[in-house]
Amino acid sequence: MARFATVLRRFDWVLFGSSLALTIFGLAVLYSTSLGMNAAAGEFANFRKQLAFAGVGVIFALSIALVNYRYLSNLSKVLYVVSILLLVSVLIFGQATRGARSWFGIGGFGIQPAEFVKLFLVVFLAKFFSDYARDHRPFLPIAGSGLAFGALFCLVAVQPDFGSAFLLGIIWFSMLLVAGVKRSHLLALVLFAAVTAALAWFLVLQPYQKDRVLAFLDPGRDPLGRGYNVTQSVIAVGSGGFYGRGLGYGSQSQLHFLPERQTDFIFAATAEELGFLGVLLVCGLFGVIFFRCFVLAKNARDDFSLFLVLGIAISLAAEVLVNVGGNLRLMPVTGITLPFLSYGGSSLLAKFLTLGVLESVAVHEAR
Predict the structure, then answer these.
(1) Is the pLDDT of residue 318 over 50?
(2) Could you report the per-residue pLDDT of 4-33, keeping only the tens digit for each?
(3) What is the mean pLDDT of residues 345-350?
(4) Which of 73, 179, 238, 360 qualifies as a cystine partner to 133, CB 3.0-4.6 A?
(5) Residue 105 φ/ψ, nearest 5 degrees
(6) Which of 222, 217, 216, 251 is nearest to 237 (CA)?
(7) 331 in helix, strand or coil?
(8) Quick one: CA dihedral 340, 344, 350, 352, positive or negative?
């Protein structure tokens, strides 16, 4: 009982409350977008599923907070192997949706392994860099971590899920920066990535993936085709004004002009119905989460704790920037979800697992 009281005292309620508030925002907008004209019955089923996943996620987060996160250090290699097995298995047994094989269908629910692999990669890299970042062999941190990252990247890219693969790349490169790798080595990596990207454009990317990039560069070239999604998103964001049209009253969302309004473009739906004030509140809640991550990293007692917290913060921040940037036509739309808000059980569960790890750090690192 005394241990439980200690956990409650050290628990970061601000971090937890901000994440829960974002989830409630997401549920509200998800319910609202299910009220549209001629809405399919399945959309309310999506709301009920998301509500169930949120409940399970909260239980997961609270349970993981009770366990010392340092066990993850010993399990980092196991989690990496699990990541490989999951990604190989989904390529063999996964369900094909829109030309991608990235989901397991289990009892009417879809599980996307890549969402959990992001967290597992952060744990593995945190352990790896805590062991080798200060190694006297300068290329070891890059080569060793690069091989580990590269295997996961290739397995996700061949699904194909270039959005998640891109995010894995951001996590790896950012953690190299945190680990203190020399600038000259990072410059060489950037040049290599540029050459690889050029080759991928001509040899790897499918036409629909090229269309997304071209739509980002010039959506007006084909406003009813490849530029339609991002054009409607920008219209939805602008039509919200300062106060928003109100939940259930967004024309772009309710009349289904805005595609994927519950997943990729939930930020645009939020901006239309809740306006600038709603967006400001959502961004403020994300800001609170990142600030609490900064505080945890500042108080970290060792390299593993530092790299773990910063890796998680980088992963969340990258998802926010990529999703919101795509909604505002600042970046190509990649299919990356908005943490805690977008519909998707795998994404929501993975985010609450991540929240549980952060809470475990808060509980067990308290001075």
Answers:
(1) yes
(2) 666 677 889 999 999 999 999 999 999 888
(3) 93
(4) 179
(5) -95, 115
(6) 251
(7) coil
(8) positive
Q: How high is the pLDDT of residue 37?
A: 47
By three-state DSSP, how is residue 87 classified? helix
Distance spanning both ends of the chain, measured CA to CA: 20
Question: 1 Cβ partners below 8 Å, 6+ apart?
Answer: none
Residue 229 has which token pair? 């999604």
Cβ burial, residue 219 (10 Å; 0-12/13-18/19+): buried
Question: For residues 113 and 4, what is the distance between their CA atoms, to the nearest angstrom?
Answer: 32
One-letter-per-residue 3-state SS of 104-173: EEECCEEECHHHHHHHHHHHHHHHHHHHHCCCCCCCHHHHHHHHHHHHHHHHHHCCCCHHHHHHHHHHHH
Give the rounded distance of the alpha carbon of 64 from its chain centre: 19
Q: Residue 295 has which token pair? A: 């505080």
Unique residue bearing structure tokens 């997401």: 26
**CA nearest neighbour of 331 among 103, 97, 167:** 167
**CA within 13 Å, CB half, 165:** 18
182 φ, ψ (degrees, to nearest 5): -60, 145
